[in-house]
Write a structure and sequence with these properties.
It is a single chain. It contains eleven helices and two strands, in the order H-H-H-H-H-E-H-H-E-H-H-H-H. The longest helix has 25 residues. It is extended. The chain has a two-stranded antiparallel ribbon. The protein is about 65% helix and about 0% strand. By secondary structure, it is an all-alpha fold.
Length: about 325
């Protein structure tokens, strides 16, 4: 109970509640404690009235970029499945999961270009998925395929695949301006498919001894890691259009031949195809390095000079 109810004050000193007494107009809040002042201000504010209202729930709109992003997520899931199966010792299943991840990566890019639904979100999601499927997964697969026998040295050698993939993807995102018909450096899916096909092939067929297998795996891992961060040019897959087929019939024929070879020989065929792809890129870069392409003006001038000399010899 309030003992000061007979006095003309507004706040009760015994508790924190307002007394139901006569309101004094000139009440100085400084005379009250901070807790009582806050309670007084809260009671003075009018309470807002709320009424029940049923809001219409709108279904989220599915954008066009959701379709290629779905295949990108499937790419990431396959990469994670490859890591899990490799940890269980199932090298064959891990290698095929990496190959399926590369297939989903190709499909999502094709759908994004077909539907014109490329976005910054899709680019970032694709890079993260590639780092899992084509960086961490093949590195762990190479480690479980024989590099684990070297201890910490094998761990560092296999980690070069993941580091090289991260650097390759970061450079690709920075230089993502316009369309180019070639890759600068070995693409991460090609590196991952090479490691996966090699591991699956050696498990399926005992063609090498343990020492030969370990040496080949070390050489392959180091070579692929360096090629990813290099500036060696590698051709892109041609677009499946009639115009592209008419412009580049040889490239289409090679792609069809490689597909038939993979279907017949499976992992061994895929490994041979990827080795040919890697060697052709290196040979092309060496040719471009040692043989400079002449501009059209100099080429026409040299042809004119050669024709004039030939005409002088014929007249003489």
């Amino acid at each position: 109970m309030c003992t000061d109810a007979h006095k003309p004050i507004h706040f009760c000193k015994e508790n924190l509640y307002l007394c139901k007494i006569k309101f004094r107009p000139a009440l100085d809040l400084k005379e009250l404690s901070p807790t009582n002042a806050r309670e007084f201000e809260r009671r003075r504010k009018p309470r807002s009235q709320r009424r029940f209202k049923i809001r219409r729930v709108e279904m989220p709109r599915v954008s066009r970029s959701a379709v290629p992003s779905t295949f990108t997520v499937m790419n990431m899931v396959c990469g994670y499945a490859a890591i899990v199966t490799a940890s269980d010792g199932n090298i064959v299943a891990s290698g095929w999961f990496i190959i399926f991840a590369a297939l989903f990566d190709t499909i999502d890019g094709f759908i994004a270009r077909l539907t014109n639904s490329a976005s910054d979100f899709g680019v970032e999601l694709d890079s993260l998925s590639d780092l899992v499927s084509f960086g961490a997964a093949p590195a762990f697969l190479a480690y479980k395929s024989g590099l684990d026998t070297l201890g910490i040295v094998g761990l560092l050698i296999s980690a070069m695949l993941m580091v090289g993939s991260g650097l390759r993807l970061a450079r690709f995102n920075v230089q993502l301006t316009g369309y180019k018909d070639y890759f600068s450096g070995l693409p991460t899916p090609s590196q991952a498919m090479t490691i996966a096909a090699f591991a699956v092939w050696l498990v399926s067929e005992n063609v090498l001894t343990s020492e030969q297998k370990l040496g080949a795996l070390i050489a392959l891992t180091l070579t692929l890691s360096l090629l990813m961060i290099s500036k060696v040019r590698y051709e892109k897959l041609p677009k499946p259009t009639q115009e592209e087929f008419r412009a580049r019939p040889v490239k289409f024929s090679l792609v069809i031949l490689a597909s038939v070879m993979i279907l017949i020989f499976q992992a061994k065929g895929l490994f041979i195809v990827m080795l040919c792809y890697i060697v052709v890129g290196i040979a092309r870069s060496l040719y471009d390095f040692f043989f400079e392409e002449m501009p059209n003006e100099k080429l026409s001038a040299s042809n004119t000079l050669a024709n004039s000399e030939l005409s002088k010899k014929q007249s003489s």
